[in-house]
Amino acid sequence: MNFDGLPPLREVIEHYGLQAKKALGQNFLLDLNLTGKIARTAGDLSQAIVIEVGPGPGGLTRALLSHGAKKVIAIEKDERCLAALDAISQHYPGRLEVIAGDALKTDFSQLAPAGSLVRIVANLPYNVGTELLVRWLTVKDWPPFYQSMTLMFQREVAQRIVAEPGSNAYGRLGVLAGWRTQAQIAFDLPPQAFTPPPKVTSSVVHLVPRTEPLHADVNRLGRLTEAAFGQRRKMLRQSLKALGGEALLEKAGIDPTRRAETLSVGEFIRLANAI
Ligand code: SAM
């Protein structure tokens, strides 16, 4: 037994036949020190409803519960994991709700009662991680339905999320994350931390929504960043031709000879609002 009174995760994986499937982005975290560190990075959980994507055999889920999460709502696509998760639900009565389904088809804003303190915490499947983050960053209602997000990404993606203007990693993700949140890399995890190990280093990113981000239309900002960074080596008057080119840049008071990666988040918002 582990300190939480449940069997060690290796036994759980063997007992339920949970050999990792690559197509589901399954790289499991079995080290309790690391799952505990992620739970602590998420902040005070005692009043929180934690939404977890992809609990798998339940390592991080168990850490969240043993660190006092009021409730965890976990969405898992792999039906093989459900029996293992059910055993955790029984161990923590009323505190773990498992939804068998696809996170990409889930309306996250409806999972917890309105007014709840919601923290999203996940060791995300790499194949859907960026897509989910972009959805959470671009929800229509702001402040959003969550108070923080603590998420695992490949380090290269994490660097793009926290990137500052002027850096190679700065692009659409950095603009969206910088616009609506304060994002920082909390810590890195080497490939060996996972079973099976992925090819690259991973990072946990902690994002806290800004209470009053500048107003912008998400769709316009999306089109703008796509065009600007789609041709990041070109001057903006060229890359933004289809959106208004030089006239648009002048309207927003931005030098048309600049390149996308030199623009601050605030300048992107000004440009989006000028479209
Ligand atoms: N949380 C576990 C851990 O830390 O060991 C597992 C993390 S593993 C990187 C990703 C998990 O997400 C797997 O359990 C996988 O089955 C699940 N998953 C993959 N795609 C999903 C989707 N579209 N919706 C919900 N869960 C998904």
TrEMBL record:
It is found in: Cytoplasm. Gene3D superfamilies: Ribosomal RNA adenine dimethylase-like, domain 2, Vaccinia Virus protein VP39. Keywords: Cytoplasm, Methyltransferase, RNA-binding, rRNA processing, S-adenosyl-L-methionine, Transferase. It is an enzyme of class 2 (transferase). InterPro entries: KsgA/Erm, rRNA_Ade_diMease-like_C, rRNA_Ade_Mease_Trfase_CS, rRNA_Ade_methylase_Trfase_N, rRNA_adenine_dimethylase, SAM-dependent_MTases_sf. One of its GO terms (molecular function) is 16S rRNA (adenine(1518)-N(6)/adenine(1519)-N(6))-dimethyltransferase activity. Coiled coil: none annotated. It comes from the Bacteria. Its EC number is 2.1.1.182. S-adenosyl-L-methionine binds at N27, L29, G54, E76, D102, N123. It holds the Pfam family RrnaAD. It catalyses: adenosine(1518)/adenosine(1519) in 16S rRNA + 4 S-adenosyl-L-methionine = N(6)-dimethyladenosine(1518)/N(6)-dimethyladenosine(1519) in 16S rRNA + 4 S-adenosyl-L-homocysteine + 4 H(+). Residues 34-211 form the Ribosomal RNA adenine methylase transferase N-terminal domain. Specifically dimethylates two adjacent adenosines (A1518 and A1519) in the loop of a conserved hairpin near the 3'-end of 16S rRNA in the 30S particle. May play a critical role in biogenesis of 30S subunits. PANTHER family: DIMETHYLADENOSINE TRANSFERASE, DIMETHYLADENOSINE TRANSFERASE-RELATED. Belongs to the class I-like SAM-binding methyltransferase superfamily. rRNA adenine N(6)-methyltransferase family. RsmA subfamily. This is Ribosomal RNA small subunit methyltransferase A. It comes from Aquamicrobium segne.
